[in-house]
Amino acid sequence: MKYVLFYESGERVAELAPLHFPAHRARWSDYAERGLLLAIGPFTDGAAAMGVFTTRKAAEEFAAGDPFVQHGVVRGWSVREWNEALL
What we know:
The chain has one domain (about 1-80): Dimeric alpha+beta barrel (Alpha-Beta Plaits), CATH 3.30.70. The protein is about 40% helix and about 35% strand. It has 3 helices and 4 strands, in the order E-H-E-E-H-H-E. It has helices spanning about 15-35, 55-65, 65-70; strands spanning about 1-10, 35-40, 50-55, 75-80. A 4-stranded antiparallel beta sheet has the order 2-3-1-4.
């Protein structure tokens, strides 16, 4: 079982994301190094992004402390359980 964190981009994503990207990247690098984050990235239309985590707790903690969430780059987020079918 994996957990997918979905982000909905805020209205000022193009303006705010570059300002907070270094701290956001440091956060996801830490989660990846600890084996909690398996993949992360934006969708090509810029409206949303997602990350794949090994636990719901990790996904929720990541979002709660993410500079993108704290500074309005992201306007909303949710976590969904995902049954990975192909490894």
